[in-house]
Amino acid sequence: MIVFDGVTKKYPDGTVAVHDLTLEAPTGKITVLVGPSGCGKTTSLRMVNRMIEPSSGTISLDGKDTGRMKASELRRGIGYVIQHAGLFPNRTVLDNVETVPRLVGMGKKETRDRAMQLLEQVGLGADYAKRYPSQLSGGQQQRVGVARALAADPPVMLMDEPFSAVDPVVRDQLQDEFLRLQDDLGKTIIFVTHDIDEAIKMGDQVAVMRVGGYLAQLAEPAYLLAHPVDDFVADFVGRDRGYRGLSFQAAPRLPLASERTITLGESARDVDDDWVLVVDGDNHPLGWVEPRRIDGEVTSERLHRGGTVARASGPLRAVLDAALSSPSRRGVVVDDSGALVGTVRPHEVLTAIEEAERPVVENPDNPGAPAA
Ligand SMILES: Nc1ncnc2c1ncn2[C@@H]1O[C@H](COP(=O)(O)OP(=O)(O)OP(=O)(O)O)[C@@H](O)[C@H]1O
Question: TM spans, by residue (predicted)?
């Protein structure tokens, strides 16, 4: 666990970048620091590995005051990932990933094996090992940056806007991959971003900061969306809060209707409905077609592909979206293998939402914090 206890940073020119910050980043969890430009996120992060020294207050790591530890020893246990990856341009990908294990004196073979395994884990095969950073895309460079930070297997990771420099689609992939990796690794992570959507997605808990280095609210993502503590946080969290909050609510048992289906190549002529769902041989939905517009067999060109598909075990948001996006207004619900289990109408999802509990309970001792 990383604990900030009354930490203030005042730069020599008088700027107070961080003001009396008290915060716990629990072991094995991702704590996100989010807020507008200049609110002190990077300063807070860099005080953890003492790239910046606090002016007052203490930061402890598993109960030990970091101010009393040797900086080199402290940093050995902390991986650091930054925007644009910060790779050494004149070293190969493999050399980059091997940097820290070599510094800490890990054996040559062990270092090599670990580096190769990590590259694999971040989705870069052996082919990339001998390339130079300039021969990689931005997203691939970020992956190397993550692999390099993980190379010495540090229990703590500091990540400063690690996925900000790539386009939104790649960013989404990197976030998903990193979350999968973190499921296995369980690192204690402080993650800085200015993007509230990224914060909500990545954080086990989210600390919203405001300019002047103040902590405005610390809460779990669902709580933050449902109970912003003031106008600043509400504005910062942004629009569609109610809808986005459904991402954190598992779909309850829904009244699924069984759906008549046909397979590709079959004729839709006998179907007495405006829309019919087309599935493949494994009963996986492919799209909807309008029987009256089809003369003969159903081909893949005739499929309406606009509808999304929701997993029965997934969040309510996906189920509502499936119902709203379906041209037939019947939302397609599948099991974990992707096979059709039934369809649900928008008003049925809304009824389920109405009947569901609001997320998390107020913590009376500390409004705005996650329930104890
Ligand atoms: N070395 C420095 N000397 C003086 N002021 C500084 C120094 N470094 C940062 N600051 C100021 O401290 C405040 C916080 O900066 P910091 O970089 O921590 O913010 P941030 O939230 O990470 O911003 P961004 O999202 O723009 O990176 C800003 O007002 C910044 O101008």
Answer: none
